[in-house]
Amino acid sequence: MRKTDLDTPSLIIDSGTLRHNIEWMQKVADRFGVRLRPHVKTHKSPHIARRQMEAGACGITVAKLDEAEVMTDGGLEDILIANQIIGSAKIARALELARRVRLAVLVDSQAGVEMLERAASVTGQILDVLIEVDTGKGRCGLVNDEEIVALAGRVADASHLRLRGVETHEGHVPRGAGGPGELQERAVAAGARIVEVAEILRGQGHPVEEVSVGSTPAAPYTASVEGITEMRPGTYVFNDVNQMALGQAHPEECALSVLATVISRPAPDRAVLDAGSKSLFAEAARSGFALEGYGGFGYIREASGARIVSLSEEHAVVNLAAGVDFPDIGDKVTIIPNHVCPAVNLHDELHIVDGEDVIETWPIAARGAIR
Ligand SMILES: Cc1ncc(COP(=O)(O)O)c(C=O)c1O
Question: Start and end of every D-serine dehydratase-like domain (predicted)?
Answer without folding.
Answer: 255-354
